[in-house]
Amino acid sequence: MSKTTHKKTLIAFCAMAALSGCSGGADSVTRSPFSAIGLGKPAVADSPSAPALATETPDGTQSEVIAGLLTRRSILPQGPYSQVSSAVLAANSRVAESDLRAATLRAEAQSKNWLPTLGPSVSLTSLGAVVTSLVVEQVLFDNGGKKAERAYAKADVEVAAVALAQDTNNRVQDALTLYLSAQKAEARAAVNAAAMADMEHFAWIMDERVKGGVSNSVDRMVVQQKLNQMQADMSSDLEAAAAARAELAAMSAAPLDGVKGTSPLPVELAATPLAVVKAEAEATRSVAEAKAARAGFLPSLSAVGAVSGSKSSGGLSIETEDGIGFGLGASLAAVDQQAEGANARISQVREDVERSLRALEGELSSLQRQQEQTATLAEGAEANYRSFAEQQRAGQRDVNDVVSVFESAVRLRREAAALPFEVARVELKIAALKGVLVDGDKI
Could you give the number of structural domains in the chain? Predict the structure, then answer.
C-alpha cells in the first residue's frame, strides 16, 4: 500500500473519531479514543487483585447502588458469630464474583460503543476480481440506542453486584444457621446428660423393688423404657450436632470446634433489603433494554468511509435494525409497557419483602414469649420434681409417679435450652433479609 493510501486511511479514521461526540454525549467528547480502546491503562476488572465492588463504573460514572452496598456494615458483634463469619468467608469460592467481573468486562466493552467501527470488506466483482476495502462507520444519530446500551451494561453490573452481596450474606447465614443448630442440639443433649444420673437411680430403685417383691416387672420395664428413650434422645442430639459441625467445617477455612455461645442481634434495622435493591437495579436494566429496543425500530444516521487501494469514498447511511413494518406502533407500545412492568415489579418485591419481615417479626415475638414462659414452667416443674423426690424418699410417693414428674421436667428443660437458639435463628434471618451480615467493603 502506498504512502498516499496510508494517509487516506489515517484521515478517514481521524474524521470518524472526531464525529464520535455526536452519539456519545458530552462525556464521550472529553475522552481520548485511544485510551478507550485499550491503549491507556488497563481496565480495573482485568486486575486479579482489584476489589470485587468498585463505585466507579467502566464508563467513568459513579454507581449509587454499589456505593450503597459498600457503606453497609455488619451487625454481627465480636464473638462467636464474627468468628464463624470470618472462617466461612475465607473459604468462599465466590462464584457470584466471577459473574460480577464478567458483567464489568461487558460494561467496559459497551463503554466504547460510541467509537467508530473499523473493519475490512471483501467483495467479488462481475469480472471475477476480488476487491478488498477498509470500511469505517460512525453512528451520528441513533435515537439514543448506544446510550441505552451503555446504561444497560452499567445496570447489569449493579445487578451482579447486588447478587454478590446477597450470595455473601446467604453464605454467612447458612454457616451461622448450622452453628446454631449444633449449639441447640448440644444444649438439649446436655440436659439429658445432666438428668441421666437421676433416671439411672430410679431404674436401680425399681430393680431393687422388683427383687424384693415390692413392685412387679411391668413397673420396672416402664422406668427402663423411659431411661432408654432419654439415652436415645441424647444420642440423636449428639449426632445432629456432629453432623451440623461437620457441614460447617466443610465450608470453613479454620476449625470452629471450640466456638460456643450466641449474641443478641438488633431487629430494628434501617437498611433497605437487598431483594428490593436488586429489583430496583433490574428495573433500571429493563428500562435501558426497552430504550435500546425502541431505538432499534427507528431509523439511525451513520457516516461511512471506505478506502480501497488508492481510492477512497464516504457518505451518509440511514438504516434501521429491525425494519419499519405495519406493526411498528404495537412494537413501540410493547417496549413502553416493558418499562412500566419493570417499575411494577419493584412494588411487588417491596411488598413481598415487607410481608416476610412482618412474618419473621411475629415469629420472633412468639418465640421470645415462649422462651420466657418455658423458662418459668421449667423452674416450676423442677421444683415440683424435687418435692416429689423428697416425698418418695419418705415413702409417700410411688417411684413411677416421681419418674413421670421428672420426665416432664426434663422435657421442659430441653425446650427451654433450645428456644434461645430458635430466637437467634429468626434474628439471623431478619438480618440476612436486610443484608447486614457482612461489611460491604469486605465483599
Answer: 1
In degrees and rounded to multiples of 5, residue 136 shows phi and psi of -115, 130
Mean pLDDT for 362-377 is 96
As a whole number of angstroms, the distance between CA 279 and CA 169 comes to 17
Mean pLDDT of 233-260: 93
Question: Which one, of 442, 424, 430, lies nearest residue 178 by Cα?
Answer: 424
**Is the C-alpha dihedral spanning 303, 306, 307, 310 positive or negative?**
negative
Instruction: Please spell the DSSP secondary structure of 151-172, one letter per residue.
Output: HHHHHHHHHHHHHHHHHHHHHH
Give one DSSP letter per residue of 302-358, joined into a string: EEEEEEETTEEEEEEEEE-SS---TTHHHHHHHHHHHHHHHHHHHHHHHHHHHHHHH
**Measured distance CA(439)–CA(443) in Å, rounded:** 7
Under 8 Å between Cβ of 437 and 92:
no
Q: Is the pLDDT of residue 327 over 80?
A: no
How far is Cα 301 from Cα 141, in angstroms, rounded to an integer? Answer: 5
Is the confidence at residue 332, as pLDDT, over 50? Answer: yes
Residue 44 per-residue DSSP state: G
CA-based nearest residue to 199, from 216, 223, 172, 233: 223
Mean pLDDT of 337-351: 86
Q: Which grid cell sits at 374?
A: 418455658
Q: Is residue 32 part of a domain?
A: no
If you average pLDDT over every residue of the chain, what do you get? 80
Residue 48 domain flag: no
The answer to whether 429 touches 416, Cβ cutoff 8 Å, is: no
CB count, 10 Å around CB of 51?
12
Say which CATH number the domain at 142 has: 1.20.1600.10
Residue 368 falls within a domain, yes or no? yes
CB 159 within 8 A of CB 282: yes
300-308, strands of its sheet edge to edge: 117-124, 130-141, 300-308, 311-319
3-state SS, 96-145, equals HHHHHHHHHHHHHHHCCCCCCEEEEEEEECCCCCEEEEEEEEEEEECCCH
pLDDT (mean) for 402-410: 92
Helix, strand or coil, per DSSP, at residue 118: strand
Domain that holds residue 353: 65-323+341-434
Q: Are 241 and 189 in contact (CB under 8 A)?
A: yes
Asked, for residue 106, whether it belongs to a domain, the answer is yes
Grid cell, residue 235, equals 444420642
In residues, how long is the chain?
443
Residue type, 289: E
The pLDDT value recorded for residue 142 is 74
